[in-house]
Design goal:
The structure holds three protein chains of three kinds.
Chain A (H helix, E strand, L loop, with lengths): L2 E12 L2 E12 L3 E5 L6 H9 L6 E6 L2 E2 L5 H7 L1 E3 L12 H12 L14 H13 L15 H13 L5 E5 L7 H12 L6 E5 L3 H7 L2 E6 L2 E6 L1 H6 L1 H12 L2
Parallel strand pairs in A: 3-8, 3-9, 6-7, 7-8
Antiparallel strand pairs in A: 1-2, 1-4, 4-5, 9-10
Chain B lengths: L2 H16 L3 H16 L4 H24 L7 H17 L4 H23 L4 H21 L1 H4 L24 H22 L2 H11 L1 H6 L4 H27 L9 H14 L5 H20 L4 H29 L9
Helix pairs in contact in B: 2-8, 3-8, 3-11, 3-12, 3-13, 4-5, 4-6, 4-11, 5-11, 8-11, 9-11, 12-13, 12-14
Chain C lengths: L1 H28 L6 H18 L4 H24 L7 H23 L15 E4 L2 E4 H23 L1 H11 L1 H6 L4 H27 L5 H16 L5 H20 L6 H13 L11
Classes of the chains: A alpha/beta, B mainly alpha, C mainly alpha.
Chain lengths: 250, 333, 285
């Protein structure tokens, strides 16, 4: 297998605080890779560095061998790095149909077409319909997103990221706050993501991590503490002390 | 559900969103009928049409992209002076003046967009206000060109298409303004229903997600800001051409403040808010002027306060109720 | 030249007293109150009326200006401002512009549109010369009073319990509430104090800035410049911004009168571009 998304000696400091400390990391093609660590370990900062929200103090980010350190957020999306957010970031006044249409239109480069009619673009319609079906949103596609139940909104969050047709998908705590009744459907959605999409899962929930992840990286105080297969990481004494011990009584 | 059936549903749903509502048709029929119904009120009707266009311009950035502005008069003034100066020194052709006013305003919008697109709402309000004030001062100090405090005088307009002369009753003027308003409205309506318009709504709803969906947020905002400036420039050009005079007043703060009131009355984000607001605003102004012309400012202040405190919901509820009384049209489009 | 600088400092001092209340209310409740100038105008007119109609001396009318504006601040805060806190900046701006318009037209209706003049006491008239620099007694008086106020405010903000609670609330109102700080009452008090100071500034400024019903509109942009350039988290930020603005404005009017207010507006736009968070604001992460 080959690396899709890599970082080399990535450092990010805020004032005197080092949030990301010399992280060299590699996400393999088709991976189901979990990034874990206690609160304040720098997981969110790391994701922001990968997606271009933040610029690193030093170090590089590369996508399939090409340097993307200096690229903007939207340029990275165009190259195939998409993400979901820990807290839903949705177009709340839109319907799921409109939101997915928007992402699809952007992916197909229609964004500056001022006079294009949305219903006259067959390619975009086919793709939008495909996403709606894949994430089981057909029945609610004409309802305002703000009025939908939280679990559905979480589905749309993932669907919108997926609609950008990424090669790398960063899922930031996808099941956070989803009530038990809707949880199963959401986990099925995550499990059903196609194999050619490489997934980096930022998660707290050990249950989900051991269910999906084939590889785990543990981040503590901005540094990589260890990396390996789930079973190996789970036995690691340092991880237990730094993270699992804490998680046990959370 | 098979792919093709779902695709049909998606297509229909998208089409429904842009279809003409019967209330819209009724609105424009009424606007056209006003020409025959109020033959003695062309001057005020012309003012309404121009204010409506100006408000439409603000709606494009405020209602669709969420950009607040306290200095939209900058573009009205730019369009007015551009059209006035062109008529005075170069060509008296109205359409050339209209195009020129729109172009210069769009350019100004493009140049100032980097100032406006950063920072918080508060810095935006400040900077837009500042830009309008600067232009006021510039127009004031370039008295050799603009006439300064005396205003730009000596504008004469040639007939439209070389045929329709501007008359003293404002008949041609109103027809001209109404047509320009209608055409620019159609274009705006098309644009807000395009992928571009959809991306603007996305930016308004959630900038973080818009950027994460591949929308180049600053560029889109710059584009709509320039477009909105062009619309305001068109309103300014119409004002200059139909009154054949431009005064410093076009840059004045009260123009921007009035405009906000217009949009607050009518509501932002559905294109008709500015038009309905302009009608209500002018009738209000006209009515109050008949008994207390001096203290118009007091009443405008009172209305602003009352609207923000809760009167707005009442009006918007009334508009919605009115629209709901029109029967929904069938599947034809 | 130095005389102009001196005049600029006096002007800046008054601007500071006028605007500092606005900077605190903006920082504390994140509320944009463009009607701040209306309180200043109230203070100015109270002074004028007390002196002209009741023959009160200038010095005695200054505290009255402060009290009248503070009282108006308390009443209005309670009655109309409070529902505004939760609304968007745009709503707040529209609302307070509405108040400004009403204040301008209302004052015009009650007292006429003419420029108001007050007769300063004899000991504040005229000027003396130190090393060839002309120093007006009144300007010196203004600098003295405003300087004392600035020091007192800085001390109150930094050292007293009220000040530390206020700073905590400015930083994060929600956390402050959680700590048991009565943010609402704190804000009412601060609003009253800020309005009172504006009233005092309006009274002191009659001689320097003039006073007519359009005062709140004319100086609105000045207050906003002080606040946005100075930032809202300190006393020194707005103070320095007010000084800079005062000196720049007076110098501009003396040296390049044909440019008008252009310099000031351009300066503001450039400053906001370079430092959107305010020139003297603390860096926040």
């Amino acid at each position: 297998m080959s690396a899709v998304l890599q970082t080399f000696n990535l450092v990010k400091t805020f004032g005197g605080i080092t949030a990301t400390d010399d992280v060299t990391f590699s996400l393999e093609k088709g991976a189901r890779h979990a990034l874990i660590g206690p609160n304040g370990a720098g997981k969110t900062t790391f994701v922001n560095l990968l997606t271009g929200v933040l610029r690193p103090t030093s170090g590089r980010v590369s996508l399939v061998g090409q340097d993307i350190t200096g690229l903007s957020r939207e340029a990275r999306v165009k190259r195939g790095v998409a993400r979901t957010f820990q807290i839903n970031q949705l177009f709340r006044t839109m319907t799921p149909l409109e939101m997915i249409s928007l992402v699809t239109a952007e992916r197909l480069g229609r964004g500056m077409r001022l006079f294009q009619r949305l219903d006259a673009d067959g390619e975009a319609i086919a793709e939008t319909a495909d996403i709606l079906a894949r994430f089981k949103l057909e029945d609610i596609m004409d309802q305002r997103i703000a009025t939908l139940p939280y679990g559905k909104q979480r589905q749309i969050e993932i669907a919108a990221a997926f609609a950008a047709r990424p090669s790398v998908l960063l899922l930031d705590e996808p099941a956070a706050g989803v009530p038990e009744a809707e949880r199963r459907e959401l986990l099925e959605t995550v499990a059903a993501l196609p194999d050619d999409v490489s997934v980096l899962l930022i998660e707290h929930d050990m249950d989900i991590i051991f269910r999906f992840a084939t590889r785990i990286t543990v981040l503590v105080n901005g540094r990589v503490l260890t990396e390996g297969e789930p079973a190996v990481v789970a036995r690691d004494a340092a991880v237990k002390q730094a993270y699992l011990g804490e998680a046990a009584h959370v | 559900m098979s792919g093709t059936v779902l695709e049909q549903h998606v297509r229909q749903s998208l089409r429904r969103a842009r279809r003409w509502h019967p209330a819209e048709l009724a609105f424009w029929l009424l606007a056209a009928a006003s020409f025959a119904l109020f033959p003695t009120r062309f001057l005020i009707l012309n003012e309404i049409a121009i204010l409506a266009l100006f408000a439409l311009s603000l709606d494009l950035i405020l209602g669709y992209a969420g950009i607040v502005s306290l200095g939209h008069a900058a573009f009205l003034g730019m369009g007015a002076y551009s059209a006035g100066l062109l008529a005075k020194y170069v060509t008296a052709d109205p359409l050339a003046g209209l195009a020129f006013g729109m172009a210069t305003s769009a350019l100004l919008g493009l140049l100032t967009s980097p100032l406006v697109l950063r920072g918080t709402d508060l810095t935006r309000l400040m900077i837009t206000l500042g830009v309008a004030l600067i232009l006021y001062e510039v127009a004031n100090s370039l008295a050799w060109l603009t006439g300064g405090a005396d205003g730009l005088q000596g504008i004469t307009m040639a007939p439209i298409f070389g045929t329709f002369d501007f008359d003293i009753f404002g008949r041609t003027a109103y027809l001209y303004s109404l047509l320009v308003l209608f055409i620019l409205f159609l274009i705006a309506r098309r644009i807000v229903n395009s992928p571009f318009g959809l991306s603007l709504r996305g930016i308004r709803d959630n900038q973080l997600r818009a950027a994460a969906s591949g929308v180049p947020v600053p560029w889109r905002l710059a584009a709509i800001y320039a477009l909105s400036a062009a619309y305001a420039g068109a309103a300014g050009a119409l004002l200059a051409q139909t009154t054949q005079f431009v005064s410093l007043d076009v840059f004045d703060f009260h123009r921007s403040a009035d405009l906000m009131l217009v949009l607050i009355i009518g509501g932002a984000g559905y294109l008709y808010g500015g038009l309905i607001g302009a009608i209500a605003f002018k009738f209000l102004q006209d009515a109050i002027a008949t008994f207390t012309p001096q203290y118009w400012m007091f009443w405008i202040g009172l209305f602003l306060v009352l609207f923000v405190l809760g009167g707005r919901e009442l009006i918007h509820g009334a508009i919605k109720a009115l629209v709901a009384r029109f029967p929904e049209r069938g599947a034809s489009s | 030249m130095l005389t102009i600088l001196f005049d600029g400092i006096a002007y800046g001092m008054v601007l500071f007293v006028l605007a500092c209340g606005l900077s605190v209310t903006m920082g504390l409740m994140n509320f944009v109150n463009l009607a701040h100038g209306a309180f200043a105008m109230l203070g100015g007119y109270v002074t004028v009326l007390l002196m002209q109609r009741l023959g009160l001396p200038f010095l005695a009318s200054l505290p009255a200006a402060f009290l009248a504006a503070a009282l108006a601040g308390i009443v209005l805060e309670r009655l109309v401002y409070r529902p505004m806190y939760a609304k968007s900046h745009l709503d707040q701006v529209m609302f307070s512009i509405g108040l400004v318009f009403m204040a301008v037209a209302g004052t015009d209706w009650l007292l006429g549109s003419s420029q108001q003049i007050i007769q300063l006491p004899r000991w504040l008239q005229g000027r003396f010369y130190v090393l060839g620099v002309g120093i007006g007694y009144y300007r010196l008086f203004v600098i003295g009073i405003c300087g004392l106020l600035a020091v007192a405010l800085q001390w109150g903000f930094a050292k007293t319990r009220f000040g530390s609670r206020l700073r905590a609330a400015v930083d994060d109102a929600r956390v402050a509430r959680g700590l048991g700080i009565p943010v609402n009452r704190l804000f009412a008090l601060t609003f009253a104090l800020g309005s009172g100071l504006a009233g005092l500034g309006g009274a002191l400024g009659i001689e320097l800035m003039g006073l007519d019903p359009t005062f709140p509109l004319k100086f609105m942009i000045y207050f906003l410049i002080v606040v946005t350039v100075g930032g809202t988290s300190t006393i020194t930020g707005p103070f320095l911004a007010a000084m800079l603005l005062g000196v720049a404005d007076v110098m501009g009017k003396y040296l390049v009168p044909q440019a008008g207010a252009f310099i000031i507006y351009a300066l503001m736009v450039i400053l906001l571009l370079l430092r959107p968070e305010g020139l003297f604001a603390r860096a926040r992460t």
